[in-house]
Design goal:
The structure holds 2 protein chains of 2 kinds. Chain A is mostly helical. Chain A has 18 helices and 6 strands. In chain A, helix 5 runs antiparallel to helix 6 and helix 13 packs antiparallel against helix 15. By secondary structure, chain B is mainly beta. Chain B contains 12 helices and 54 strands. The longest helix of chain B is centred in the first third of the chain and has 15 residues. Classes of the chains: A mainly alpha, B mainly beta.
Chain lengths: 455, 1014
């Protein structure tokens, strides 16, 4: 008896060749976006971006540590911190989904070349975004496509990110070129803005200015007239929006899991868990600038009546909460309608300002910076001293982008982290805390992989 | 007319032998030789035949032929050497073996009463580790020469009368003539593709020939817990609870309470075992027959926990055409019915407080409700008083009372084989075998009663209100009925020719054949209905209420097929130099994915019988001495099926996303896990052995060394955090090496005609190690305790299923100590203190270490038999060591549970009280504190029998016996049983070695009778 006898037909599972269902490439691309709605972005993400910084405290009740949020808050985390491990893992899973989507789309045989390239460009953008998070947090990291057990130098990771973004820029349409019902997909502007930010990180000032200018001159974007309205439902994917994570509150609700709930006010009249609360230090930063508009748009104070009429009791557990995470319609719902703003026009202006200042182009720097200040009714900055202007731009970034998950990156990028955090009363160890530890779960399975110094 | 015969019986050296039994063949008439070796016997006829038998000597049959004087020289039986063993597609003289095969015969199997033969064999064969399960209908786990595979088929292959089967649970032990264990690759490779975990060949009884012989036997006994654990009583519990609550800031219990329940007393009942069997065997010139019937009934330690099995067997053998054709026909029918009860009741009984009554005076089930204001137990409170619970556990009796399961099975198994003897040295055999298995089971769950019983304040009206408010919601149905039917069929067809001839001193045997097999043909049908009538007679899905949707499932299994070609040559020169070569080519449908179906499995064995050499012929001390060596390759095709998993969802999942101002939900997809091409697990094994018999063959011994390397070990791979995949998948990931030593020693002696005895001891050592784990595949974890804690991890250099946890190094005495030392979050005085292994000032996962494995490194057995006049006595002992077991019952506390008296008495009670044992307030992390030495020694069986002197002519034997099974267990382990196979059949990364809801070891006292008629 031979092969015929041994080739038994499957009965329990429908064999791949018999499956009628063939996945469209777009389904795998949607799956890449979908990974940004995971629970990690609703909780772990808060810990590693804001709670860890001088902007936010852990919040909640003293006994509720949020597993390791207290350790992040106090810079006492180790390689076993679940939040760090969770983010490392979700980024690599997103990268994996993106790579699969790219390969699937390439080999699927789509006849519409532009559509095919657009899908690939979207996946490349999302892959670059995930690698950009990884490389900033961990330094040298494995390139998933090459080897899962070896870290490659930071430089190579950036090359990979830049090549993905350049390719995305070439193939993605402008925001206005998408049909309305596709709004929210990665655009050429998003890829340009991200690349501009990558170059800022790399201190390649001219390229940063170059790509920021491409966004600014595209005519696709502008500033939302009222700062506090940037986080309202009506301004989602609006004039200022370059890239945001999409969410819906109506059934079937599908938000960034419990993003609004984890940060909602806790206790009487509250609607959430009360994590990631603005620090007194942040309040003082607004006050010293006389920045009432952004302070009130960013922070919910205990006892305050919110813009939609909701009264927050004096007796909530924490004195302040993150207003940018507040969803009026779905406050404490598991899935809220809150879109998370990842890149917006004001940040591009600030990137332009910072890079231009480094290039000595004070005029352009001041122009961009003051567009941002003007909206929130602050006096224009006029200094022409490069160092003073640099400081002013850095401060502006903090006030403008607080609770938009960029503070820790800024502190590290600008080299202020040690100085700021120690002044904030946290034991920042130079030479250690600039990078996160490679998660223990990873090292356990790939023992030959190096750990970052100090962990 | 009467005829008298007399004579002398001598041994091979001419010395007279006293105590030799002489019987007239076919009768019970007989005598024995006196101290000078002389005998005299009156026989009915001068044409009768005399049978001379004596322990340690070959039995001789001598026709009287009219003589009055017959002198006999008996030759010693070479205890092992002369036996015939089954080697797969044939038999062989044991002395001609080059491989490692152990044989067990019917007396050893049936000496103790058991449901399946493997149970009785614990501690009797070197290299075979049997882990028993004392639950009714429970079957033991058998491991030959160490665990080689982590997943899929870990079990040895069973061959019953030439038919491959999964287990031998459908066979009555008394129907078994012999069991041969093919341990090394040289022996097992004839079954190549499934031999990786060893092969166990079972041969059932054949007719004896001649006049019908009847055997009837029956035994009955009582079963109780062997090793019970003392729990804290009322006052101890109150103290413990109050200390715990004082530490964490909870209410205090009042010192005087109404109830003092011993839950094990309430839960456990005396079980029983009743076993009866009858057989008849006989034959004529052309036919031999054997018919047997066995019924076995067991009741376990829990209420209505029963198992019942009947087996009927008929084995016939026919000789046709002047013995040119031999037909063998075996057929067995086995019917069983089982009413299992959840073992979780043992777990709950361990944890529930003695303050909880079994029932409240009003008849409601007791529950751990307590008035937190007064500290008194009860579910009622005055105004402003808070009613809470002591713990989250229920009443152990409800789990039993509301469980209603039944499973019926029917197994039909048979084989028909025809052997054609072309010449006396060339034969052809064709064999067709098959097994059909049916099972139907049902589970009735009285949801409403269960809901009401779990809280004495609940009423039927409340339930009915909820039911009315939630139409169609099955959670509020009165009851549910689940039924499942399953049928399976497998067949095999083997054809082989055997050439067996000697040319001068060249002895040659050649076997060539092919085999094909189809397994797992069948289907399962199951369904669930709600609100069927209460009475059992109406438990049909059709009578379920139409208010609830019925669920129906039906699956046809994907069968697998196997095809094989095999050849074996066995050659020896003058019974001195031996060589055996085997080659098997196997194909399996399992690897349809890759279409890489086939693999070769070769083996070779060499032997040298020194005792047959001229230079040894003068040696009087050594009767038999042989050196053996072998090498071979074996395969395991029972591997998990891999499929690419693609996730999609129509809800809020991370495959989906929304776009556009309307925020329409768009459905996407993602790859969960890849399908890796999986192929054979391959075992390479070396074996070296010595067999020796000395002191007139009274002492026989064998010694084996082996090294067994399993390559391509299939692992359930945890995807790396930086890999693209989210889900675990199967892949070849490493190598497992088992190496060990096996020694067996048997001594038998006859001191006089009235007293003979034998002693056997055996020892097996096996070292297991995972080697060469593929990059990125380390870190598979397992051994979950059900509370989020894990206890096992895979790592190169450790055994399979190695323990991995924190090392306890004391008890926190003061808060100050905690503040000034590395500690886990939430540490309090009285908690265990864990070692900062990497000395980085933080206690985290990196401080966990390996602590060996639950699989014993060594096991040993002692078997003693003694015959004195009409009495026979036997005792079997078994022990293991070098392993660790985990007391998960003691460890996994959620608060407010009961504890053992031992833990109560030695607990930490404040600074300086103890630095070893935790206080009443302790954490539930997995740590070495709860990992205990798993060594134990158990007397498995003591039997004392008495055979009546011959009274009636037609009754050849009447024997009464009393037997104690598991009378003694010596162990330092603090739980119920150190023999813990876990919930998923010994999966090394499952709960094997962890006591959580294990069935306790039981002891049984049995009385029995054997009657043989002719």
């Amino acid at each position: 008896c031979g092969e015929d006898f041994l080739n038994v037909n499957s009965r329990e599972r429908v064999a791949a060749v018999d499956q009628e269902e063939i996945y469209r490439p777009d389904e795998f691309v949607i799956g890449v976006y979908g990974n940004f709605t995971e629970w990690e972005y609703a909780f772990s993400w808060l810990g590693v971006t804001e709670i860890i910084s001088d902007n936010a405290d852990k919040g909640s009740s003293p006994s509720d540590t949020g597993t390791d949020k207290h350790l992040l808050d106090n810079l006492q985390f180790s390689s076993t911190a679940p939040s760090i491990q969770a983010m490392w893992t979700i980024w690599y899973k997103t990268i994996g989904r993106a790579t699969n989507a790219i390969e699937y789309t390439e080999s699927f045989g789509l006849s519409d070349e532009a559509y095919k390239n657009r899908l690939i460009g979207e996946a490349r953008f999302l892959r670059a975004l995930s690698y950009f998070y990884l490389v900033r947090y961990f330094g040298d990291v494995p390139l998933q496509q090459e080897d899962l057990t070896q870290r490659v130098p930071e430089e190579e990771v950036y090359e990979f990110i830049i090549s993905d973004l350049e390719s995305a820029i070439a193939s993605l349409p402008l925001k206005s070129e998408y049909p309305t019902d596709e709004l929210g997909r990665a655009t050429r502007g998003a890829a340009q803005a991200l690349l501009s930010k990558v170059y800022l990180e790399r201190e390649n000032w001219s390229e940063a200015v170059n790509y920021a200018d491409q966004v600014i001159n595209s005519g696709e974007y502008g500033l939302e007239p009222n700062y506090e309205e940037i986080w309202r439902e009506h301004s989602e994917n609006g004039i200022e929006s370059i890239f945001e994570i999409q969410a819906r509150g109506e059934s079937t609700a599908h938000g960034v899991q419990q993003y609004s709930q984890t940060q909602g006010a806790r206790g009487p009249s509250g609607w959430g868990w009360g994590f990631n609360t603005p620090t007194q230090d942040l309040v003082e930063a607004y006050d010293s600038e006389g920045d009432e508009i952004r302070k009130n748009a960013t922070i919910i104070f205990a006892g305050e009546t919110l813009w939609d009429g909701r009264e927050v009791s004096e007796n909530v557990e924490n004195p302040r909460y993150n207003e940018k995470a507040y969803s009026s319609a779905n406050a404490g719902a598991a899935d809220s309608d809150k879109n998370i703003r990842v890149l917006r026009y004001a940040e591009v202006l600030l990137i332009k300002a910072e890079a231009a200042n480094e290039l000595g182009n004070t005029g352009a720097a001041l122009d961009a910076l003051n567009q941002v200040r003007e909206r929130v009714e602050l006096d224009p900055v006029t200094t022409s001293d490069q160092a003073q202007l640099r400081r002013a731009i850095w401060k502006e970034r903090r006030l403008e982008l607080a609770f938009e998950h960029d503070r820790w990156f800024d502190l590290l990028r600008t080299g202020q982290a040690g100085e700021v955090m120690r002044a904030h009363g946290k034991d920042f160890v130079d030479g250690k805390h600039e990078l996160f530890p490679i998660p223990e779960e990873q090292l356990r399975q790939t023992p030959e992989m190096r750990q970052n110094p100090g962990y | 007319q009467q005829h008298t015969v007399q004579g002398t019986v001598n041994d091979q050296n001419g010395e007279p032998l006293p105590g030799v039994n002489i019987t007239v063949k076919g009768t019970t008439r007989g005598t024995s030789t006196n101290s000078e070796g002389m005998y005299e016997l009156t026989v009915p006829s001068a044409s009768d035949t005399l049978v001379f038998s004596f322990i340690g000597f070959e039995t001789q049959e001598i026709p009287i032929d009219g003589r009055n004087m017959i002198d006999v020289n008996l030759t010693p039986a070479t205890l092992a050497g002369e036996e015939v063993v089954v080697v797969g597609y044939g038999t062989q003289q044991q002395e001609d073996l080059t491989g490692s095969i152990s044989r067990i015969e019917t007396e050893e199997i049936t000496r103790q009463s058991s449901l399946t033969a493997m149970e009785s064999l614990q501690g009797k064969i070197t290299g075979v580790n049997v882990i028993n399960n004392d639950a009714p209908g429970g079957t033991p786990t058998v491991i030959l020469r160490g665990l080689g595979t982590a997943l899929g088929g870990r079990n040895p292959l069973y061959i019953v009368d030439g038919v491959p089967v999964d287990d031998i649970n459908n066979i009555s032990p008394s129907d078994i003539e012999s069991i041969d264990f093919l341990k090394d690759a040289s022996a097992a490779s004839i079954y190549g593709l499934r031999a990786a975990n060893g092969v166990i060949i079972v041969t059932t009884k054949d007719g004896e020939g001649g006049a019908p012989q009847f055997e009837v036997s029956s035994s009955a006994g009582y079963t109780s817990v062997l090793n019970s654990v003392e729990m804290a009583d009322q006052q101890e519990y109150i103290t413990y609870f109050n200390e715990e609550n004082a530490a964490i800031g909870g209410f205090q219990l009042a010192p005087s309470q109404q109830y003092n329940t011993d839950w094990y007393d309430e839960l456990l009942e005396t079980g029983y075992v009743i076993d009866s069997r009858a057989s008849v065997s006989g034959g004529s010139e052309n036919v031999n027959y054997f018919v047997s019937y066995n019924v076995n009934q067991e009741k376990g330690l829990l209420d209505e926990q029963t198992f019942w099995r009947q087996t009927l067997r008929n084995n016939n053998k026919y000789w046709l055409f002047n013995d040119v054709v031999e037909i063998d026909q075996n057929l067995s029918i086995s019917v069983s019915r089982e009413n299992p009860q959840p073992f979780s009741a043992f777990n709950t009984a361990y944890r529930q407080s003695p303050l909880v009554p079994t029932f409240y005076p009003n008849g409601r089930y007791g529950q751990p409700f307590v008035n937190e204001t007064t500290g008194k137990m009860g579910y009622e409170g005055g105004e402003g008083e808070a009613i809470g619970r002591l713990n989250t556990h229920g009443n152990p009796l409800t789990a039993i009372a509301f469980n209603n399961q039944e499973r019926n099975t029917v197994t039909l198994q048979g084989a028909l084989s025809a052997k054609i003897n072309f010449t006396d040295y060339l034969t052809f055999t064709s064999r067709l075998g098959g097994t059909k298995y049916y099972s139907d089971s049902r589970t009735f769950n009285p949801l409403k009663q269960g809901w009401i019983a779990s809280d004495p304040t609940r009423t039927a009206t409340q339930y009915e209100t909820s039911k009315a408010e939630n139409p169609g919601v099955t959670d509020w149905a009165d009851n549910s009925l689940f039924v499942q039917n399953l049928e399976r069929f497998r067949w095999n067809w083997d054809n082989f020719i055997t050439f067996d001839k000697s040319f001068d001193r060249h002895n040659t045997e050649l076997t060539l054949g092919m085999s094909s097999e189809r397994i797992g043909v069948g289907s399962t049908f199951s369904g669930t209905a709600y609100d069927v009538p209460q009475q059992e007679q109406y438990w049909n899905l059709n009578l379920g209420s139409d208010d609830y949707e019925k669920q129906v499932n039906h699956t046809n299994f994907t069968p697998s097929t196997l095809a094989s070609y095999f050849g074996r040559i066995q050659y020896n020169y003058d019974q001195r130099y031996y060589i055996t070569g085997t080659l098997r080519r196997d194909g399996t449908s399992q690897f349809a994915n890759t279409e890489d179906y086939w693999e070769f499995f070769p083996s070779v064995g060499l032997g040298w019988t020194l005792s047959n050499e001229d230079f040894m012929s003068d040696n009087e001390f050594i009767d038999f001495l042989k050196l053996r060596g072998s090498w071979g390759r074996l395969g395991n095709q029972n591997v998990p099926l891999n499929t690419t998993v693609i996730y999609t969802s129509t809800g809020s999942s991370s495959q989906n996303y929304v776009f556009g101002p309307a925020q329409t939900l768009r459905f996407g997809a993602s790859v969960g896990s890849p399908a890796r091409d999986i192929s054979w697990e391959i075992v390479e094994e070396w074996n070296a052995g010595v067999d020796m018999e000395i002191l007139d063959s009274r002492l026989s011994t064998s010694l084996d060394f082996y090294q067994k390397t399993t390559e391509n070990v299939i692992l359930l791979v945890n995807p790396l955090p930086d890999s693209p995949y989210a889900e675990s998948f199967y892949d070849h990931g490493g190598e497992v090496v088992n190496q060990g030593v096996e020694v067996g020693l048997d001594w038998s002696n006859s001191i006089s005609e009235e007293l003979s005895y034998n002693v056997g001891v055996n020892f097996s050592y096996n070292q297991n190690e995972v080697t060469n784990v593929a990059a990125g595949y380390e870190g598979l974890t397992g051994g979950g305790l059900g509370n989020g804690q894990i206890t096992k991890r895979l790592e190169e250099g450790q055994p399979l299923g190695a323990w991995w946890m924190y090392e306890a190094e004391g008890v926190w005495q003061t808060q100050e100590q905690i503040d000034n030392n590395p500690s886990l979050g939430g540490a309090m005085p009285g908690h265990l203190r864990y070692r900062d292994l990497n000395e980085d000032g933080v206690i985290d996962e990196r401080d966990k270490r390996f602590f060996g494995s639950y699989v014993p490194n060594y096991n040993y057995g002692i078997n003693i038999g003694l015959n004195y006049r009409q009495f026979d006595f036997s005792m079997d002992g078994f022990g293991v060591g070098g392993n660790k077991v985990y007391n998960g019952l003691n460890n996994t506390r959620f608060g407010g549970e009961n504890t053992t008296r031992d833990m109560f008495e030695k607990r930490w009670t404040g600074e300086g009280s103890t630095n070893t044992h935790p206080g009443a307030n302790r954490d539930a992390r997995a740590s070495s504190y709860y990992l205990e030495d798993g060594a134990y020694f158990r007397i498995n069986n003591i039997t004392l029998g008495y055979s009546l002197p011959e009274i009636i002519d037609r009754v050849s034997r009447v024997r009464f016996y009393v037997s104690a099974e598991n009378p003694v267990l010596l162990t330092g382990y603090s739980g119920f049983t150190p023999e813990l196979i876990g919930s998923d059949n010994g999966n090394p990364y499952g709960t094997a070695g962890i006591e959580l809801s294990a069935y306790p070891n039981t002891r049984t006292l049995l009385f029995g009778i054997n009657i043989d008629l002719k």
